[in-house]
Amino acid sequence: MKRKKVVCFLLAAVMILGVTGCKKEAPKKETTTKKVEKAEEKKEEKPAEEVPANQNLLTGLGNLSDGAIGKRPVAVMVNNVPEAMPQYGVEQADLIFEIPVEGDKTRFMALYADYTAMPVVCAVRSCRYYFPAISQGFDAFYCNWGIDDTIAEYLEQLGLDQYDGMTDGNGLFGRDQDRLNAGYALEHTAFFDGTQFANVVNSNGSRTDLAEDKKGTAFNFNGMNEKVKPSGGDCGSVDINFGAQSSQFTYDAANQVYLKSLDNGPQVDGRTNNQLAFTNVFVLETDISVRDDVGHKSVNWEGGDTYTGHYISNGGIQTIHWRKDPGNESSYLQFTDENGNPLSINRGKSYIAFNYPGQAVFQ
């Protein structure tokens, strides 16, 4: 009997222990840290902005023809005195420089990124040394009618790829007969037939591919869909006094451009009748003086880290600094903010004035 009781007791104990040992543990709750880590893993990285293959290197816009991708731009010297108005072919320019010449009148250098889609441009004028010193930074073809003879040696040293109406053998230049008939002075009637330019440069074997160090954009641009307002305050108008003439810009908020005037009258393209308009306006202060008895100017195109300028866009303005590499015409024009950081600008057409210090009013 005792043995049976012991056996029964042992069996009962084994059964109790077996039941207890088979009890399942409750699943552990996931920690907050692990949940956050998993959530972060699911986040997708923001894709890099896609820049169009036909990006215009002067404006940052995607509007180049296929034949112009990776090709050199064209710089054209344009008469800008009131007696030559209205110019034509200038509205299509992607970038315009305005700089004083003799008597503090001004001249345009208009740059076109697409050499295969050039317009006829009038009135074309002669070269002054500081214009090709700037155009070389864009690896541009250079088109003009005549030169200041004192700079012939300098232009030869530059290795300028030049087309000159005075020695034209390609049929690219002529006189506008309608202007002659209307009584314009001869110097205001020269035209450059840009519609023939691609045929000429391709047939004569000129280099059309951009130099390796010029295949990036000419400026640092903001995002494709960004319009950034400069950080220095509002700017609805600009008035630049060059001396013998002036340029004004008025902000068109609806189209986010600055409309250009010459001596307080709208400056229009004579073929399109549209007022010249720019997304970006730059006023760069520099050293300008008279260098000879004719009145030819000496213009500091190099600038430097202490040289001041103003960047105007999207209804705003900020003070900047500007420079090119000393003694290097082929270097880019470089802009920085007041702290020395590279400046990024809005995509679109730009106007750049080189002028005497303190001769612009911003409101």
TrEMBL record:
<feature type="domain" description="DUF3048">
    <location>
        <begin position="238"/>
        <end position="352"/>
    </location>
</feature>
<feature type="compositionally biased region" description="Basic and acidic residues">
    <location>
        <begin position="27"/>
        <end position="49"/>
    </location>
</feature>
<feature type="domain" description="DUF3048">
    <location>
        <begin position="58"/>
        <end position="204"/>
    </location>
</feature>
<dbReference type="InterPro" id="IPR023158">
    <property type="entry name" value="YerB-like_sf"/>
</dbReference>
<dbReference type="InterPro" id="IPR035328">
    <property type="entry name" value="DUF3048_C"/>
</dbReference>
<dbReference type="Pfam" id="PF11258">
    <property type="entry name" value="DUF3048"/>
</dbReference>
<protein>
    <recommendedName>
        <fullName>DUF3048 domain-containing protein</fullName>
    </recommendedName>
</protein>
<dbReference type="InterPro" id="IPR021416">
    <property type="entry name" value="DUF3048_N"/>
</dbReference>
<feature type="region of interest" description="Disordered">
    <location>
        <begin position="27"/>
        <end position="51"/>
    </location>
</feature>
<dbReference type="Pfam" id="PF17479">
    <property type="entry name" value="DUF3048_C"/>
</dbReference>
